[in-house]
Amino acid sequence: MRPGTVWAVRGAAGALTAVALGHTLWNGIAEPGTALVFGLLITVGELARGDTGNPGNPGNTSWDAGNTWDAADAGDTGHRSGHPPAGARRPAPLASAGALAYALLGHNGGAPTHHGVLQTVAVVVAAALAGTVPHIARGHGPALDHVARRVLTVGFAAACFQPLYNSGRLEDLLGQGPLLVPFLLCLLGLTALCDAVLAAALARSRTGWPYGPLLRDELRAHAGIGSAICATGVVMALGVAVAGPWALPVFSVPLLLTQLSFRRISAVRTTYRQTITSLARATEIAGCTPPGHARRVAALSCAVGRELGLSERELTVLEYAALLHDIGRLSLVDPVPAGAGGPLPAAEARRIAELGGEVARQTGVPAEVAAVVERQADPYREQPVAARIVRVADAYEDLAGGARHPGGSLEALERLRLGTGREYQPEVVECLAHVLRGGVRRGKRSPT
Q1: pLDDT exceeds cutoff 60 at 6
Q2: Does residue 108 contact residue 31 with C-beta atoms inside 8 Å?
Q3: How many CA atoms lie within 13 A of 97 on its CB side?
Q4: Which of 284, 344, 400, 415 sits most deeply, having the most CB atoms within 10 A of its CB?
Q5: 286 close to 330: Cβ distance less than 8 angstroms
Q6: Model-level pTM?
Q7: What is the mean pLDDT of residues 302-307?
Q8: pLDDT at 96 exceeding the cut of 60
Q9: Is 83 helix (H, G, I), strand (E, B) or coil?
């Protein structure tokens, strides 16, 4: 972990905010009517945002967009430090689009604007704080790191546009014709990249996870609702330039509808994940596995997967497969006396794995999850990466007997190492050892 990165980002955002507010208070507000309209839009967008389920989450996705299917379904079984539970990320796309539109606003109803970079930051911060007060009062305010990212990214967009516009160089180069639109889209692309880099760096400093996969997940998140937010920000800026502030309500409706749809989808996915977790407990209730076995295997599996550089979607598949890996044991007439790790004949183990895969398919999980479950009895060289990870985590949990020792159970790890090359992939076993010791091998990639 590198807390210096966190404090550097927060310090930069705090300094920019202080300078922006001081400059605006000292010099007054240019075009106060326009600033008020955009401030109200941002405030409404923040008010419409659902409560942030995990105020300490360092991994909030960019532009308040929430994440795609991958992270929204990931949930929290206690294995991903700092990772939010399903539904914890509540989007505020309207506020984000309004902030971007104000940063890129050049004309208002045909008349030029003069609000500049610092006033843009001041208005966005003040409006966002006003809209956040009710959430803070309920104890669900946004993460401080997320606020810092918004300040810096909006400041970046305004700094790239406002000086060029106010000096007249932008109009000399592009005019007010069709070339302005691709310029604004390219600028927003750079802004989104800036935000993704900051988000990944903050998550990296807090969790110690490899930076590459974190950045890849952030960029994937931008390709979803983040693209809609950026496009709407451009359309708002261009619409206000021609028609004035009356264009804002028209362009706000699609994002509000999108936000409502996102909430409904998040609620459905949260319920869906809770169903998977409850189903995983069936083996414990039936006495086929020790209490908490599936959750512990999922925790170890996802920690190893994160260390190996798996993407967010791959981690979701891995988690679901780890939770359901023993579901086929419900077909046993009598529980295995030795518990989940009790020996089974090869044919019986394969039958149980295939039955578990079929049960997983009936739950509606992605096909990759069922494939991982049903291939638990295959030789590890023939298994997908997720199946190899689950196999090692399951074996360790069985050998350690649920015990928790500093650095892990040395005896269990030694027995796993003796089985490498025959039963378990050596790279996965060594990665598990690093995870148990709390170490991180930066940039390690998935075994193939």
Answers
A1: yes
A2: yes
A3: 32
A4: 400
A5: yes
A6: 0.71
A7: 88
A8: yes
A9: coil
pLDDT at site 224: 74
Read off the amino acid at residue 419. G
Per the CB < 8 A criterion, the answer to whether 396 and 415 are in contact is no
Note whether 278 and 320 are within 8 A (CB): no
Give Cα 389 to chain centroid, integer Å: 22
Asked if 23 contacts 122 with a C-beta cutoff of 8 angstroms, the reply is: yes
CA distance 150 to 143: 11
Q: Angle CA(448)–CA(369)–CA(316) in degrees, nearest 5?
A: 80
**How far is residue 9's CA from residue 311's CA, in Å, rounded to a whole number?**
25
User: Within 13 Å of residue 254, how many CA atoms lie on the same side as its CB?
Assistant: 13
Q: What is the CA radius of gyration of the chain?
A: 25
The predicted-structure confidence for 236-273, as pLDDT tens digits, reads as follows: 998 998 888 888 888 888 878 877 777 788 788 788 77
Supply 250's token pair: 């028209």
Q: And the tokens for 50? A: 């659902």
Mean pLDDT within 203-225: 80
Contact 320, 277 (CB under 8 A): no
Residue 403: how many other CB atoms lie within 10 Å: 11
SS3 state at 99: helix
CB-based burial label for 119 (10 Å; 0-12, 13-18, 19+)? buried
What is the three-class DSSP state of 107? Answer: strand
DSSP 382: G
- B/e letters for 336-348, b = 16+ CB within 10 Å, e = fewer, are beebbbeebeeee
Could you tell me the CA-to-CA distances from 194 to 130, 154, 200, 223, 315 in Å, in that order?
Answer: 25, 10, 10, 14, 25
Structure tokens at 325: 């890996």
Q: 420: which strand partners? A: 424
For residues 65 and 303, the answer to whether their CB atoms sit within 8 Å is no
Segment 145-170 mean pLDDT: 88
Distance CA(356)–CA(277), nearest Å, equals 15
**C-beta neighbour count of 207 within 10 angstroms:** 18
